[in-house]
Write a sequence for this structure.
């Protein structure tokens, strides 16, 4: 599949980037030690990998410079105060836009956008609680099945609002330095309310944020939230597929995309989290989710009504899955080597699409319709993403970086056309 104009322009701007050059390294280090570079200094993280707050993503930066994701993603710079560097290296040349993006971060800190507005979150929590009260009232307080189905839709709106709170909590946007309090809030608003593991989601989401739309065919690594077994939205994903069944589904992926997202989206995310989750506190929270759901559905008159009720819940949630997928599926992909050789800030812009909606509808998107800004500044309070967009757009215009923003129907059409084009280029010899 031929690269797009944006991909060609971006590739030419970063041909033959300089690698990391070791200047000094402690001589008593054995060859099997694992080092990560931050701000020109090597740190030995061999014994720290299993304790890393961001999970195993740190292993993708062994022998690499991790300065920018370290500063922007994890908010644990104090850790370096207690760790002695074991060497130094010369950092690769920076993209001209990097300094401007980092100036923005400093400015946003001065504006207070990286602090938690508890009053704003209180209002969001009240909205979610109101949705739940209305939903329960529709089921418990009425006998007509159509009112019950309306309750199912309203229940899912409450789930969605809690999902945004879970998202922010697992990003450590609320309690900030107290990550355990954020994890507990994520457990409550995510695992208990939504019914899938918040920590499993977080483990995948960190990979997605740090190495968005990145793939390594040799190790069969790919951004875990940006590829599924039923479609391949970029040629760099082709080597991960094989066999006639996957060939068939890739060839019709532009047809199956919408129904699969809507009707299988919740089933896939729930079953994956149950299959892979082993943490006891997650199992307790997920069990409590089904206790309250079984209690609520026990008020329904027949098994058929139970089925239709949950069908409405899962379907409406499936529509919400487009809020993540449409921001990425039609964008470029990087190999791991390309990713490490490219400006991290630029990759975040080029792998994201903003969804243009009226500010009135930001609540139903959770502000994440400004997905470029969220990926550039993952710790930024989402209530400020729209305001941040004007600054980001100006930097992209200054440095000729493609800033993609369109309406949801346009993003959907663009994604389906992209899937059709990608699928038409897939052949069995890619396996």
């Amino acid at each position: 599949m031929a690269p797009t104009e944006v991909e060609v322009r971006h590739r030419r701007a970063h041909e033959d980037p300089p690698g990391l050059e070791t200047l000094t390294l402690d001589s008593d280090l054995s060859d099997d030690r694992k080092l990560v570079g931050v701000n020109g200094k090597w740190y030995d993280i061999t014994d720290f990998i299993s304790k890393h707050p961001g999970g195993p993503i740190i292993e993708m930066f062994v022998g690499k410079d991790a300065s920018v994701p370290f500063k922007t993603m994890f908010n644990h710079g104090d850790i370096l105060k207690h760790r002695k560097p074991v060497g130094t290296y010369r950092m690769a040349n920076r993209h001209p836009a990097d300094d401007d993006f980092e100036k923005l971060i400093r400015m946003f800190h001065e504006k207070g956008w990286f602090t938690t507005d508890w009053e704003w979150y209180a209002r969001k929590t009240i909205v979610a609680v109101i949705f739940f009260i209305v939903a329960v009232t529709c089921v418990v307080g009425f006998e007509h099945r159509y009112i019950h189905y309306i309750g199912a839709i309203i229940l899912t709106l409450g789930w969605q609002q809690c999902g945004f709170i879970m998202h922010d909590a697992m990003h450590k946007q609320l309690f900030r330095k107290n990550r355990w309090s954020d994890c507990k809030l994520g457990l409550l608003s995510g695992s208990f309310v939504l019914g899938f593991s918040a920590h499993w989601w977080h483990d995948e989401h960190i990979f997605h944020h740090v190495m968005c739309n990145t793939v390594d065919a040799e190790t069969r690594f790919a951004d875990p939230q940006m590829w599924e077994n039923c479609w391949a939205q970029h040629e760099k994903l082709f080597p991960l597929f094989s066999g006639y069944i996957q060939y068939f589904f890739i060839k019709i992926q532009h047809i199956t995309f919408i129904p699969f997202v809507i009707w299988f989206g919740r089933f896939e995310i729930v079953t994956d989290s149950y299959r892979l989750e082993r943490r006891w506190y997650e199992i307790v929270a997920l069990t409590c989710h089904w206790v309250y759901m079984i209690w609520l559905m026990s008020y329904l008159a027949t098994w058929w009504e139970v089925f239709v009720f949950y069908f409405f819940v899962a379907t409406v949630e499936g529509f919400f899955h487009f809020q993540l997928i449409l921001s990425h599926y039609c964008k470029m992909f990087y190999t791991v080597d390309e990713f490490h050789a490219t400006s991290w800030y630029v990759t975040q812009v080029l792998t994201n699409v903003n969804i243009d909606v009226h500010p009135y509808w930001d609540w139903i998107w959770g502000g994440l319709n400004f997905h470029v800004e969220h990926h550039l500044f993952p710790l930024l309070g989402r209530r400020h993403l729209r305001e941040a967009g004007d600054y980001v757009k100006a930097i992209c215009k200054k440095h000729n970086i493609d800033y993609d923003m369109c309406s949801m129907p346009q993003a959907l059409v663009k994604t389906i056309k992209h899937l059709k084009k990608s699928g038409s280029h897939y052949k069995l010899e890619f396996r």
In short: Residues 1-19 have pLDDT under 50 and may be disordered.
